[in-house]
Amino acid sequence: MVKIDFSNRLKNLPPYLFAEIDRLKGELKRKGVEFIDLSIGDPDILAPKKVIDILYSSAKKKENQKYSLDQGKLTFRLAVKDWFKHRFKVNLDESKEILPLIGSKEGLVHLPLSLVNRGDYVIVPSPGYPGYRGGAILSEANIYELPLWEENSFLPDLGKIPKSIRNKAKLIYLNYPNNPTTALANKDFLERVIKFCSHYGIILAYDNAYCEIYFEDKPLSILEIEGAKDIAIEFHSLSKTFCMTGFRIGWACGNSNLIAGLLKVKTNIDSGIFCAIQDCAAYALEKERDYIDNLRKIIKERRDIFVNGLKRGGAENIYALSTFYVWVRIPKDFSSSMEFVKYLIKRGVIATAGVGFGNYGEGFVRFALTVNKDKLKKALTIMGTNRN
Ligand SMILES: Cc1ncc(COP(=O)(O)O)c(C=O)c1O
Question: Which atom of ligand 1 is nearest to the CA of 245?
């Protein structure tokens, strides 16, 4: 047998966070152990019914069964343009400033291929969505892990990034509403980010996948900030907003050169998004605005139940400001987030260890509110009563 010598790029990739959790879940299933899965941000709620109807009728048309254009259907881009204008009061040019994606992860991970040369620095938030790190490694970048400290409301202190890194950094990822910390970013902070990036010539990839999952303050788009279109590209997803994770559709928008670069990478890698998916996604953006209000209500109710339960059980430092996650400090009698997660798994609750989101996630655990109220209450009972 020929020994396969994988590339350094591949060797440098850590095992994907959720792949490891999937493996553990598979083991539990094989053993017939029941568990409550609060690990992955994959909502249990059905996508809008009419979206499925459109998908079905659109899939039957021959023109939709062919390769789609790389830049995506004009109808979908126009739906994005209209939604964006309505939601953020920002004008986007549908021919140059919007690029449909096979889910926002695809664009986030491919972006560095268009920008980064071997050895350039990419700044990734820690804790942060693992896709940023993966994309940077696949582009053979050096990674600077940007700490999001609890004391600073999980916003980075850009002034503390060493000068040597600032001067060599090509790209920075930021994500608010934030996974996993649930933090939000206000206008003042975003203005400082744009100033910083413009000053150092660092491209900003702003991940806004959770912009619709909020409870009080309405999240902003980075493109609402003056000067952002000169330096920023923003990522959106239908996965969370319309519970369409498996459909694989999102988009990038912002600086037209950045969009063109990402498009060039994509035309060499994929052949577009199934047209019927684009049609039903356009419908969701145009017509399912009430669905989002209802989704927020459901998640808020779950959040309140879960957070109150955790408090009653004595948990401290609980964060649940946005997204459908709860980020909470692990109990004092555990020495690491992994140790606590393993303890929970043995009792039938699966959560995600904070360290899986980067070194600065250690000491925390993330619960996803992606199961119904009854299951959440059951998970609370297990966690509250089954200690020791
Ligand atoms: C912060 C963040 N960004 C992006 C994504 C990717 O979403 P999708 O590729 O489904 O659009 C996720 C998925 O969990 C996420 O948490």
Answer: 10
CA pair distance 358, 354, nearest whole angstrom = 7
State the virtual CA torsion across 298, 318, 364, 21 in degrees, nearest 10. Answer: -20
Tell whether pTM > 0.85.
yes
Q: How far is the CA of 240 from the centre of ligand 1 (A)?
A: 8
Query: pLDDT tens across 238-267, in order?
Result: 999 999 999 999 999 999 999 999 999 999
Query: Domains, the chain, ranges and CATH?
Result: 8-46+290-385 (3.90.1150.10), 49-287 (3.40.640.10)
DSSP code of residue 238: H
pLDDT in tens, 92-110: 999 999 999 999 999 999 9
Instruction: Report whether 43 contacts 243 (CB < 8 A).
Output: yes
Q: Are 111 and 234 in contact (CB under 8 A)?
A: no
Who lines ligand 1 at CB under 6 A? Answer: 41, 103-105, 129, 175, 179, 207, 209, 237, 239, 245, 250
> Is residue 262 within 8 Å of residue 256, measured between CB atoms?
no
